[in-house]
Amino acid sequence: MMNPARSLGDHLREWRQRRRLSQLEFALEADISQRHLSFIESGRALPSREMLMHLAERLGVPLRERNPMLLAAGFAPVFPERKLDDPALAPARRAIDMLLKGHEPFPALAIDRHWTLIAANAAVAPLLAGVVDTSLTKGPINVLRLSLHPQGLAPRITNLFEWRAHLLERLRQQISATGDPVLAKLLEELSAYPAPPAPKSAAPERDFAGIAVPLELVTEAGHLSFLSTTTVFGTPVDVTLSELAIESFFPANPQTAEALRAMLPGSSAPGE
């Protein structure tokens, strides 16, 4: 038997509870009465499309999940989902390519909502040399799996204990925010990989004084240390675009910067 379609109230209640908000707390956050919210969740009142979008925005509901909410309320979906090679997304794809290329000689890559590699600049490939299981570097490439797999980059990450903890916590936060079952399954897989032993002493003090968790990687060019940033599109109205992110890695010390410039001669560092 098919499961009955979920009501708008079911959707709203699930996202409100996911955000750990009581009806009163969310009503205050959304600037509506608790009675009105209660009526919407129980199906006794149907909000306008504008009110529904306002509630979804206040709850931080991903664009992908707002379309089912609209359908449940009797409205047409408003957020398209196009493939990245769709002509409509050509300006966004050019922006991604410019960001990746402009970041050379430092590594940068674009990923989708499931951490699948979409694109990478020329500085990424040299860092993957020596990966034992070459299937990890063949499409579709999952960046988290490649990083933490015992036959991937993990054996060459010298601070694997803290880097692994950082990635798994970031993934948990993403699952909490989106409720994505694919990510939940990925977390289960990654958590089952052999865990590195905890360091016997505190991590050594670094030049950046504990402001971020670095990625410390042994490569053919020596021991490299990176800080990372994440860039997303600020005002997307397309589902695909809203789920894209660019991971940019910056050298955490002068030695890493020099090694990266030597790996890609002729490239200018960002800002130069």
From TrEMBL:
Pfam family, one: MLTR_LBD
Organism domain of life: Bacteria
GO molecular function (one): DNA binding
Residue ranges annotated for the HTH cro/C1-type domain, each copy included: 12-66
InterPro entries xref list: Cro/C1-type_HTH (IPR001387), Lambda_DNA-bd_dom_sf (IPR010982), MLTR_LBD (IPR041413)
Name the record gives this protein: Transcriptional regulator, contains XRE-family HTH domain
Species assigned in the record: Rhizobium hainanense
